[in-house]
Design goal:
The chain has 180 residues and is of the alpha+beta class. It contains seven helices and five strands; from the N terminus they run E-E-H-E-H-H-H-H-H-E-E-H. The protein has one domain: Glutaredoxin. Strands 1-3-2-4-5 form a five-stranded mixed β-sheet. Helix 1 links the parallel strand 2 and strand 3. It starts with 16 loop residues before the first strand and ends with a helix. The N terminus is likely disordered.
Length: 180
């Protein structure tokens, strides 16, 4: 993973999709791409991270679709935002990573139905690309933070290189907990 990050990375903002209690003192942000094989490999590790550190971390997912390599990633990101508008971002997030080989619009609609979205609303929002700007804003913020590939992880604003495994992310979170 190539990241050239400034000293201080991103912090949470009100439109982030977040798991974990507001009282958690450690913030982990992932910049990811739903069609990226490395992000799919990191996905189960993130689930384990959330269980292991339970109420001690807040986790946010931001979009970083690399459309040159992953032509369906941007549309998948839009679908997750459409789901988020109906309060089901994380359900769609999971569907997309668990079905990464099938991210065309017809499949996205099946996932929307599976998680109980209002399909009329979903179809209209997807047709009008209502959430494309938000996806592009995430991408721009990632670039500003020095993200060049996915997944890109930050722990309390500090980049964590997981190119040799998720253990580095777990260690970074553990170190932050111990330092507080």
């Amino acid at each position: 993973m190539a990241i050239h990050a400034p000293t201080r990375g991103p912090s949470l903002n009100p439109v982030d999709h977040v798991l974990g209690p507001a009282s958690a003192r450690i913030v982990v942000i992932e910049y990811g791409d739903f069609e990226c094989p490395s992000c799919a490999q990191a996905y189960p590790g993130v689930k384990i991270l959330l269980k292991r550190f339970d109420r001690r971390i807040r986790f946010a997912y931001r979009h970083f679709p690399i459309v040159e390599a992953h032509p369906h990633a941007e549309l998948a990101a839009e679908a997750s935002e459409a789901a988020g508008a109906q309060g089901k971002f994380w359900g769609m997030h999971d569907q997309l990573f668990e079905n990464q080989q099938h991210l065309k619009l017809k499949a996205l609609r099946r996932y929307a139905d599976a998680i109980g979205l209002d399909l009329t609303r979903f179809d209209a929002e997807m047709a009008d690309h209502i959430y494309l700007q938000r996806v592009q804003e995430h991408l721009a913020s990632g670039r500003t933070m020095g993200v060049h590939s996915t997944p890109g992880f930050f722990v309390d604003g500090t980049v964590v290189d997981v190119s040799f495994g998720m253990d580095r992310l777990f260690d970074a979170v553990e170190a932050r907990i111990k330092s507080r």
